[in-house]
Specification:
The chain is an alpha+beta fold and 655 residues long. It has 17 helices and 22 strands. The strands form three sheets. Strands 2, 13, 14, 15, 16, 17, 18, 19, 20, 21 and 22 form an eleven-stranded mixed β-sheet that branches. A seven-stranded antiparallel β-sheet has the order 1-5-6-7-12-9-10, with no helix packed on it. Strand 9 and strand 10 (491-493) form a beta hairpin. The model is unreliable at 621-640 (pLDDT under 50).
């Protein structure tokens, strides 16, 4: 198993992502805080104040608002751990005090402002309540994450103590008899409990501090046990205490976890549950959890993943569709892209394969980053791959769940760049950065300098071991790269040796450099023939970036047919200097495509990712009512679909 380094040991220092994160830190974070604090006029923190003051009867926003502000706290915690900001730290201390005051009203440590203010007799969805609506386990899970991340960022324990009290409250209520059979309706708490377990298990001094300052006698094992209980009691409905007793596919409660093999239901809930499932599998070593995670991942990657790394095809219930049901007007919520990226990161930790980081990177650039505007203060909830010109980012939303999730991933992006274990260091993401790593007791500083991704393929890795030492450097060769060459001490390394990584094993010394050159060919991509929405169409990619046609660059429209000629790459100012693609249409006109993450920054207009391609038969596959129906009725030999070479693939690239 490969382990991520401690968050504070990695710094993003230059290039594309440094610019993005600086904007998020200094613009987006404050925009999100300001809008939450003035939301519904009273502001989000009024909920905690009303609980502390004993004033029930009204609540700002929907029941999951506690979770959203805690997600923002988690994201900010990771940001200030990397680049300390006193004003943001003070803001979290202010929120911590409000949360603590509200929690102190309840002797059990229970905290969920909606339930307390609106339906206090319906805790955990009992007595006529609804766990799906009240979001108690989700909100407390978000609080636990906030407490853990803020403690790691600052060493401060008050918010963590609130998190532990709330977690202890859940542990006292939920579990094997005589406790109650209650499982999360909106997942997130599963992984949060694993994080809390890891923190308390690994930090030997923390339990004494918590006991002395807050009178807490922590027992880390019970948090992992609760996470396991939640996994093992999916589809165990006979003695379910909360309502609804059966939450179905919507909340991944339709069958036992060891029997689940298809991703179904609400895409955000699903991906967060699968993230927790993988985390539980890593921590316990239980094969049933890891096998289930692998089955579900393969199902998504091979039949339900949009080319942008987005998941959740269906607007109704924000859910997965059938296999190969990938419409271009799909929902593809920003939150779902973030959850999928988190899941990909855990799958890499479990299995060490580069394909998980390929998926992480695709979602990061093409489903998560588009969720924020170039000015840093407007947001997408949905990320469709086609627009009739009416879609645009919003300043704020009645359910502003995506900005907090966005901040969570961006705040911890650096955690996914490197990994170590088994006497090797892995470079998973090509991002200008530096890290201090520990490799079996050996301190190694590693740098990535002059990294041109996503615009050019040059990168330099510099190693600084504290002494000469033998180990292996594993460099991910991205799935999108063309020719790849790593040069070390005059030797060329061009082929992958293991799980998608180029391996360099040597006795390294301070200052050793590995110069990397990757080809970033502009590619046309076709979808599996069962994806009826994209038969006869192609999408355009270069490096990790997905491209789209916008009406502002193509005044004749975006419903064009591309010619069979090649694609040209040039530099243009589109909210900053970027690489754009251009080429000839079948009718002799030209087209221009820009990075998808930048669309809708220059006013409203039509947009398309998948465009018709000359020579591709639009009727190659019979169109049924749904792609899933077609796949179910296909006859193999005799159909128009040529499936040769498609085994295990959902997309195929060609020049």
């Amino acid at each position: 198993m490969m382990n991520r380094p401690e968050h504070r040991m990695v710094r993003i220092t230059e290039g594309f992502w440094k610019e993005q994160l600086d904007k998020i830190h200094h613009v987006t974070v404050w925009d999100v805080l300001n809008k939450f604090e003035h939301d519904h006029e009273d502001g989000i923190m009024k909920n905690y104040e009303w609980v502390a003051e004993g004033k029930p009867g009204k609540h700002v926003g929907p029941p999951w608002y506690d979770g959203l502000i805690c997600e923002v706290i988690r994201g900010i915690s990771d940001i200030i751990a990397a680049s300390y900001d006193e004003a943001l730290d003070q803001k979290i201390e202010y929120y911590t005090e409000k949360i603590s005051q509200a929690q102190s009203v309840d002797p059990d440590g229970y905290i969920n402002t909606y339930t307390t203010l609106i339906c206090p007799d319906r805790r955990w969805g009992e007595n006529g309540g609804s766990l799906i609506w009240q979001h108690e386990t989700y909100n407390i899970g978000c609080l636990v994450e906030a407490g853990v991340h803020y403690y790691k960022a600052t060493g401060k324990t008050k918010l963590l103590s609130c998190a532990i009290k709330a977690a202890d409250c859940m542990c006292s209520v939920m579990g094997p008899a005589p406790r109650k059979n209650i499982v999360p309706a909106h997942s997130l708490a599963e992984e949060a409990m694993v994080k809390l377990y890891r923190l308390l298990k690994d930090d030997e001094k923390l339990d004494q501090t918590l006991k002395e300052e807050y009178g807490l006698a922590v027992q880390p094992e019970k948090y992992l046990e609760l996470a396991c209980f939640w996994m093992d009691h999916r589809d165990v409905h006979a003695d379910r205490a909360s309502f609804p007793h059966y939450m179905g596919e919507y909340a991944q409660d339709h069958c036992r976890i060891e029997e689940q093999s298809e991703a179904v239901g609400h895409a955000v809930r699903a991906a967060l549950m699968y993230t927790g499932l993988t985390a539980v599998g890593i921590e316990t070593g239980e094969e049933k959890y890891l096998s289930a995670a692998k089955r579900l991942w393969d199902n998504v990657e091979q039949t339900k993943l949009h080319i942008s790394g987005g998941i959740g095809a269906v607007h109704n219930e924000e859910r997965f569709g059938y296999q190969y049901d990938l419409p271009n007007d799909a929902y593809l919520e920003t939150c779902a892209g973030v959850a999928f990226a988190f899941w990909a990161g855990e799958m890499y930790r479990a299995f060490g394969e580069s394909r998980y980081m390929d998926a992480f990177e695709c979602a990061l650039y093409n489903n998560v980053l588009p969720g924020l505007s170039a000015d840093g203060v407007h947001y997408f909830y949905e990320n469709p791959l086609i627009s009739d010109g009416t879609v645009e980012r919003w300043s704020w939303h009645g359910c502003p769940c995506c900005p907090p999730m966005f901040l969570k991933l961006m705040g911890c992006l650096q955690d996914y760049i490197y990994a170590s274990g088994e006497n090797r260091i892995a470079v998973n993401l090509h991002i200008g950065s530096e890290a201090d790593l520990s490799l079996d007791g050996l301190h190694v500083k590693i740098e990535q300098k002059d990294c041109g991704i996503p615009w050019s393929g040059e990168n330099t890795i510099v190693l600084h071991p504290e002494r000469e030492a033998a180990f292996t450097l594993a460099i991910r060769r991205p799935a999108w790269s063309g020719k790849f060459c790593a040069v070390y001490r005059g030797r060329k390394f061009e082929t992958c040796d293991e799980k998608g990584y180029v391996l360099i094993s040597d006795t390294f010394r301070d200052g050793d450099e590995i110069r990397i050159s990757m080809e970033l060919p502009a590619m046309k991509v076709e979808a599996h023939p069962y994806v009826s929405a994209d038969v006869g169409r192609v999408a355009l990619m270069r490096g990790p970036l997905l491209y789209c046609l916008e009406e502002v660059d193509n005044p004749s429209g975006v419903d064009v047919t591309l010619g069979n000629g090649g694609l040209s790459v040039s530099e243009r100012d589109v909210c900053g200097l970027v690489r754009v693609l251009s080429g000839a249409c079948a009718d002799g006109e030209t087209f221009t495509a820009v990075p998808y993450y930048l669309w809708n920054n220059r006013g409203k207009g039509r947009m398309a990712v998948w465009v018709k391609q000359e020579g591709k038969d639009m009727d190659a596959v019979k169109t049924w009512e749904t792609a899933g129906e077609y796949a179910a009725h296909r006859t193999g030999a005799g159909t128009a679909a040529d499936l040769t070479g498609w085994e295990g693939k959902l997309y195929r690239r060609y020049l």
